[in-house]
Amino acid sequence: MSESAVANHAGSSKDDLQTAVVVGGASGIGAAVSAKLASRGINVLIADVQEEQGRKYAEELKNKYQVDVAFQKTDVSNEQDVETMIKVVVEKWGRLDYAANVAGISHAESQTETGVTTALVDRYVRLPKPVKLMSRVLSLNPSLL
Fold first, then answer.
1. pTM score, two decimals?
2. How many helices (H) does the chain have, and how many strands (E)?
3. Quick one: pLDDT at residue 102?
């Protein structure tokens, strides 16, 4: 663990540590974001559909950076999954300081303009309405106001 990471959270109580959710945090850019946050002494919830990979990566980061890193299987196209993800953060740490939505999916066969159908956009791009989602986040964690 780097000295800066140790300095950021050595001797800190659970309530002092900041928390983050990284949606899509099990691989790719999301994994890099998860690692950077953990290296800074920030507790991280990795929210991803890749359950086995996400659980392994959470354990790896927890051991490497000595912060609390957890995994929650989350499909961001499913509103109930997103609500559960926020509840897990609030129940586990009592706060949410950072959120990174870097979830993405790619199908090599649909990388052409004609291969991207309305059904694919609806499934993988259109997420719950941001205002509705934010109101749920705030209702579950009013201290964010």
1. 0.71
2. 6, 4
3. 86
Q: Give yes or no for a contact between 65 and 36, defined as CB atoms under 8 angstroms apart.
A: no
How far is residue 87's CA from residue 123's CA, in Å, rounded to a whole number? Answer: 23
Alpha-carbon distance of 74 to 66, in angstroms, equals: 24
Task: Say which CATH topology domain 17-140 has.
Answer: Rossmann fold (3.40.50)
CA within 13 Å, CB half, 46: 34
* Residue 96, φ and ψ in degrees, nearest 5: -140, 115
User: Bigger pLDDT: 80 or 140?
Assistant: 80
Residue 74: which of 52, 95, 50 has the closest Cα? 50
Domain borders along the chain are: 17-140
Q: How far apart are CA 23 and CA 49, in angstroms?
A: 9
pLDDT of 7-27, one tens digit each? Answer: 445 445 555 789 999 999 999
**Residue 103: which pLDDT band, with cuts at 50, 70 and 90?**
confident
**65, 67, 73, 76: CA torsion to nearest 10:** -90
